[in-house]
Design goal:
Structural class: mainly beta
Largest sheet: 7 strands, mixed
Order of helices and strands: EEEEEEEEEEE
Strand content: over 45%
Helix content: under 10%
Distance between the termini: 40 Å
Oligomer: single chain
């Protein structure tokens, strides 16, 4: 059973920084992709950033150059460093583990979410 627990959310001012962390318990496979999604009120959940088992990263255009995703496989942890925060970054941020053991099979596991609020 895979479980994800996020931490690090909170209140920040515009231009400020926050660092989110997600600890994954259970079996993590080398090819698992870890990612961060967010959902603002009235909006769909969207991908923020993802990192593959090989270390390749992918970012939403809206956060490129401001956010950095990283993973520490020894600690089963994925991080999201958020700099230059904007009001529109306010959302609930969810950690995600994506697993594709075969071409036909895909599994997604989610954390409970952590609130990020950017306000002056």
């Amino acid at each position: 059973q895979v479980q994800l627990v996020e931490s690090g959310g909170g209140l920040a001012q515009p231009g400020g920084s926050l660092r989110l962390a997600c600890v994954v318990s259970g079996n993590i496979f080398r090819l698992d992709t870890l990612g961060w999604f967010r959902q603002a009120p009235g909006k769909q959940r969207e991908l923020v950033a993802a990192i593959t088992g090989g270390g390749s990263t992918n970012y939403a255009d809206s956060v490129k150059g401001r956010f950095t995703i990283s993973r520490d496989n020894a600690k089963n942890t994925v991080y999201l460093q958020m700099n230059g925060l904007k009001l529109e970054d306010s959302a609930v941020y969810y950690c995600n583990l994506n697993r594709r053991p075969t071409v036909e099979a895909e599994y997604n596991y989610w954390g409970q979410g952590t609130q990020v609020t950017v306000s002056s």
